[in-house]
Amino acid sequence: MSRLRTSIHASLLLLPAVVLLAAFTHVPAVRTFIGALYTTPRGKRPAVFVGLDNYRQLLDDPVFWQAMANNVWYAALTIPLSVVLALVMALAVDARLPGRAALRMAYFTPTVLPMIAVANIWLFFYTPGYGLLDQVLGLFGLPETNWLGSRDSALYAVIAVAVWKEAGFFMIFYLAALQTIPHDLREAAAIEGASRFTFFRRVTLPLLMPTTLFVLVNAVIGAFRLVDHIVVMTRGGPDNATALLLYYIYEIGFRFWDSAYAATLTTVLLAILAVLAAVQFLFLERRIHYR
């Protein structure tokens, strides 16, 4: 009886969270999957079941493939750069340096800034002619560059902003993990004559793998959900050079009001994220050492 009462009590405590999770996550996801099988209702014309026709349209959509290629390249650069930079920054601020608190604050500041504010700051940096970047390069006699107006540089300019903002966020998790490593391990390694690099490679890095898995999952999700910076800085241009998948979904859903095709794109995005998360857990789990 006592066990049943405990189970009922626990279920009631979980009920509000379960209801909110279902209402704002699971139900919308299911409705999205179903909506991708219908046409978009317009005026008095109701939605019509079309099966997989929206997916066939997606396969023939050149803008979708352009956005997908941009997103893959964006993720391939931002994820390793932000994760490695976060680890380097965490190692730096974990050491006993003068002004360590100020350095930590400087690294973390970009994270607490609103994404729209960050985009506007960097929009000024990238402004041709009088932007900060061109002003600095002009001191060395280099010509002006339209960083966001050229297909060759626009996506890399957006990538730089993302890495600058995300690295400080990931640094906090690495810093917290570094501070849980027992000092006696360092002392034992020093007595054995192990170098700092050997200690990092043999002890620190394996103990950081749970944190790395968490950071990587969040980095992958973040790489496929960027839309704020794109809206403010480039609007997907020039010529779809910076159009990422979520921004394309936003355009289809809220500019062209094609909710059915937007649902189809969203279903593909969710499937991609699910596969990537599963791959990360299956392969990285084997390299993780839990204490």
Automatic annotation (TrEMBL):
UniProt keyword Nucleus, yes or no: no
Major site of localization recorded for this protein: membrane
Protein name (Swiss-Prot/TrEMBL): sn-glycerol 3-phosphate transport system permease protein
Bilayer topology: Multi-pass membrane protein
InterPro entries, per the entry: ABC_transporter_permease, MetI-like, MetI-like_sf
Originating species: Chelatococcus composti
Compartments, record wording: Cell membrane
Lineage: superkingdom: Bacteria
A Pfam match: BPD_transp_1
BP-aspect Gene Ontology terms: transmembrane transport
Assigned protein family: Belongs to the binding-protein-dependent transport system permease family.
Record keywords, A-Z: Cell membrane, Membrane, Transmembrane, Transmembrane helix, Transport
Lineage: Bacteria, Pseudomonadati, Pseudomonadota, Alphaproteobacteria, Hyphomicrobiales
Residues annotated as transmembrane: 72-93, 105-125, 154-176, 205-227, 260-284
